[in-house]
What does this fold into?
Amino acid sequence: MKKIQEAQTYLKQMHLDGWLLYDFHGNNELARHFLEISKTQMTTRRFFYWIPADGDPIKIVHAIEAHVLDHVPGEKRTFLSWQSLEKEVAKALKGAKKIAMEYSFKNAIPYISRVDAGTVDLIRSNGVEVVSSGDFLPHFTAVLSESQIQSQIGAGKVCDRVVNEAWKWIGEHLRDGKLITEYDVQQKILTDFKKYNLVTDHAPIVGINAHSADPHYEPLKDRSSPIQKGDFILIDLWAKEKEEMSVFGDITRVGVAAKHPTDRQEEIFQIVRKAQKAAVHLITDRFAHKKRIEGWEVDDAARHVIHEAGYGEFFIHRTGHSIEVSLHGSGAHMDNLEMHDVRPLLPATCFSIEPGIYLPKEFGVRLEFDVLIHRDGRVEVTGGEQDQIVCLL
It folds into this structure.
């Protein structure tokens, strides 16, 4: 497999002796992704796949599921008892001093910390130092194919269309004096997703006034507020095309059920928009000069703007997350708050930029679009941009 050779190149660059992939009952979906094991394939026994920096891979599989890695290259070694498992692992790692696994020191980046502490103990008992595979793993799990890139762009365009239709629908109801709730708007968006052949993993967020200050507010049929004239409204929606390997579009917009926003709403909006632009400017500049940029740096760029404006304590989440087949993907997150993400942003990857200011019992502004890094380093915003608050009356 070409990817085995690519992995060995990264291992040599990082001065590692090898990469040990491990899974039990599907708890390491990153390893399974790399090894191209279907999500529907059931495995109930432990297995290891050892990729040395030099030489051929080794497969360590249980006798009951000896076939599980037959599709990948390497010498197969089977085990039955726990004693034989430990013996085969020790034999495979003989001579290795420093290896990579899906591990994160102090669980600093939970998204890549998929190997349990006991298994890491087992590996360390062989005199081996375990480090994170996080710096090179996204090359295999988060990098998008050209068709996936086009699916992401397409999903963003449809999400943009759907949210604009939602604004129009809300405005018509208000002008006609018809009752409309947060839940009604949520359900219309879900209906429109079906109309445009999109799917999602969760219903969108529609929140008014204080609800918009709750980043994960969810309107329910029996717990939803009516939208009335004067209300501030936040809509966060995400969806992707139905094809199996398609990629999500994820956007957030804000509006007011009025002819114009209040001065307070406009002030907060402009600060958040400035923070969003600052993040994209940093990314664009780094890629234009072919310089490395890490997730935490993007978070800092946006957070600095909001902090300097005096609202730092009200920006209560990271600036963005990796996007791929999963809404929250395996690549670098724009985060120096919830975690210090030192992973680099890579060409042919996608992620959100979504700074926010949430004022309890008042309202919250989050502006979200997606950023797609093309293979040549060109930076493209997908899903559309919002430069002013949508006024519905």
Remarks:
- The CA atoms of residues 166 and 226 lie 15 Å apart.
